[in-house]
Amino acid sequence: MIKLSNKTLSALPAKTSRPSYDREALSAGIVHIGVGNFHRAHQAWYLHRLFEQGLDHDWAIVGAGVRAFDETQRQKLAAQDYLTTLIELDPQGRSAEVVGAMIDFVPVEDANWALIDRMAKPDIRIVALTVTEGGYYIDPATKGFDASHPDIVHDAQNPNAPRTAFGAMIAALKKRRQNSERPFTGMSCDNLQGNGNILKQTVVSLARMSDPGLADWIESECSFPNSMVDCIVPATGPNELALVQDFGIADAVPVTHENFRQWVIEDDFCAGRPSWDKAGAIFSEQVHRFEAMKIRVLNGGHQIIANVGEVLSVPTIADCMAHPQIGAFFSKVARDEIAPLVLPAPGMPAQAYVDLVERRFSNPEIIDTTRRVAFDGSSRHPGFIVPSIQSALREGGASMSGLALVEACWARMCEGTREDGSVIEANDPFWDDLRRIAIEAKTRPEAWISQSQYYGDIGSNSEFSERFDHWLRKIWNDGIIAAIDAYLAE
């Protein structure tokens, strides 16, 4: 077993691809906050492939984080010179590739001074983030900025010792402004429609709470491009650690991923950018079409099946797709109720995208657990399912019976038990509240869709509420499979 490091790259097994460029010659251009599996399998891979072409070696990544667990990740990566083994899980065969786009990782501190100092340096021209869909301090009721959140209140009162990534970005931008340096581009890589707009809203709104003049400067001088990111990347556990060892590599933080990636980016960078398009990314003025289709079909599709899988003790997404009722449930809802209301992206009709997602979800090599995919439904259902319901209501006459069943399945899962009697452990930041309402909804279904922070005014729509009421009562009376069978027979 060869321990991954710069010194051992040449000794890695011949079947493992490794950087051909001189990592010592790389210099930083990007700080990335939130160095999880997705970032290393997606954004870091595109940059690595660009470096392989001998291009843009002054755009290497400096990792960063603002939570205590990020320090553990930093230490693991530092011990192997910030290298990561990516294992592609193709049904036709697995392959391994070591990527070297990251060259440093900022020490994680309570007040984030080291992070602020690094982002304030003029060589950093992009600050990117993957902090999850629920990490942008959005008021769930209004979809605007949540100025009352304790983290935000703290950062507004302590702008020089912030606890959030956004507060640290503002403090760094303040230093750059004071030093007459150009601002950096802020780039969200999270699954949010209009993610650049949302990042701008968070940063500018937080800055305005403590320094209105700085907020005006950020709003006028910084750029926040929207982007769509797509690659299925499971969490790393014992199975993934064993896979990397099968390649003869000792890597403490390997990443597995499917044999598909897509990155569509709005070309709006105030301080320059790498030539990601030369590594396969797409720069487009129609990012919103790409992201709407992806968020509604793929991310929404995950929610269609993951909640059912949890209730029925089906362990993985691929297992769900192989299940006769769950796979058919995904297909009918996606084809009949979601795809018809999604504008096609360039070169990809919505129904063809459903075919693609169906194949990707069914990949048996991807061990993506239903529990991981079902996590944080309080962010994912409003972000991924509710927009399709709203489109159906606006359209008038469009079918939404399956979407109502999807939401009934979420309510059933949040009750906290599976049909085999086992307990579903807390899997949402608001789990206690969700479980309380889900229990109440067993006898009074309207309690669930009356949660305006997730559904807005959808709960007051009689057509949707009647279908939801019907499905949730049927689930509790007859079981979730009986409800799905009844839907499939409609």
Provide a brief overview of the structure.
This protein has helices at residues 37-41, 43-52, 68-78, 113-120, 150-157, 165-178, 195-210, 212-221, 238-246, 287-311, 317-322, 324-338, 350-361, 370-374, 377-395, 401-414, 431-441, 446-449, 452-455, 462-478, 480-488, and strands at residues 2-3, 16-17, 28-33, 60-64, 84-90, 93-99, 102-105, 126-129, 185-188, 227-230, 249-250, 255-257, 262-265, 282-283. It is an alpha/beta fold.
Write structural notes for this entry:
With 490 residues, this protein is of the alpha/beta class. The protein contains 21 helices and 14 strands. The protein has two domains: 2-283, Rossmann fold (3-Layer(aba) Sandwich), CATH 3.40.50; 288-488, N-(1-d-carboxylethyl)-l-norvaline Dehydrogenase, domain 2 (Orthogonal Bundle). It has helices at 37-41, 43-52, 68-78, 113-120, 150-157, 165-178, 195-210, 212-221, 238-246, 287-311, 317-322, 324-338, 350-361, 370-374, 377-395, 401-414, 431-441, 446-449, 452-455, 462-478, 480-488, and strands at residues 2-3, 16-17, 28-33, 60-64, 84-90, 93-99, 102-105, 126-129, 185-188, 227-230, 249-250, 255-257, 262-265, 282-283. The strands form four sheets. The chain has a five-stranded parallel β-sheet with strand order 7-4-3-8-9, with helices on both faces. A four-stranded mixed β-sheet has the order 2-6-5-12, with helices on both faces. It is globular and about 65 Å long. The protein starts with a strand and ends with a helix. The model has no long low-confidence stretch (mean pLDDT 96). It holds the Pfam family Mannitol_dh_C. One of its GO terms (molecular function) is oxidoreductase activity, acting on the CH-OH group of donors, NAD or NADP as acceptor. Residues 29-278 form the Mannitol dehydrogenase N-terminal domain.
